[in-house]
Amino acid sequence: MVAALEGKGASDAIAENGFYRAYFRLWNEQDYYQAHDVLEHIWLKTTTEDARYFKGLIQAAGAFVHLKKQFEHPTHPKHGRRLQPAVRLFHLALKNLSEYGPVRHAFDVAKFRALLEDYANEILRSEYKKNPWSPRRAPKLQLRPEIIS
């Protein structure tokens, strides 16, 4: 899958990287765990200023892993308590993404940060009682090559 997603000829090498692109595809398929996992292939090798950017994207996917598990198993002893860890990961992701934007590697980081804030705030307002995620409302992410930074 990663090789098939490699872009051709854009001016931003990261935006054309198959692992980076796979992150967004897997996210949109609501496979947040695999999205997190695939982006680690870039993050673990990154020695540039992008390390925190990738870490923030990975943490955001981790937060959505928690939301999805809690939605699927709300009364399960472990999965039913996943809203607090999700909020912690949202805050870590927001911190790591704060220095990037409004656009980074063909991705609207400013819009993404607003989405993460909205999810965290909705959970906090409910005092950790309401999960704002559902398969029907799951956010979609897209790369926008026309806005490569």
If you had to describe this structure to a student in words, what would you say it looks like?
This protein has 149 residues and is an all-alpha fold. It has a single domain, classed as Hyaluronidase domain-like, CATH 1.10.3450. The protein is built from six helices and two strands; from the N terminus they run H-H-H-H-H-E-E-H. A two-stranded antiparallel sheet has the order 1-2. Strand 1 and strand 2 form a beta hairpin. Helix 3 runs antiparallel to helix 4. The longest helix has 22 residues. The N terminus is likely disordered.
Proportion of residues in β-strands: under 5%
Discrete helix count: 6
> Main beta sheet: strand number and arrangement?
2 strands, antiparallel
What is the CATH superfamily?
TTHA0068-like
Structural shape: globular
- Average pLDDT figure: 91
Query: What is the H/E order?
Result: HHHHHEEH
Strand order of the largest sheet: 1-2
Cα-based radius of gyration, to the nearest Å: 15 Å
Helix content: 40-55%
The total beta strand count reads 2
Number of domains: 1
CATH architecture: Orthogonal Bundle
Backbone structural class: mainly alpha
Distance between the termini: 25 Å
Which regions have little confidence, pLDDT < 50, spanning 5+ residues?
Answer: 1-7
CATH class: Mainly Alpha
Examine the coordinates and then state which fold CATH places here, giving the name of the CATH topology: Hyaluronidase domain-like
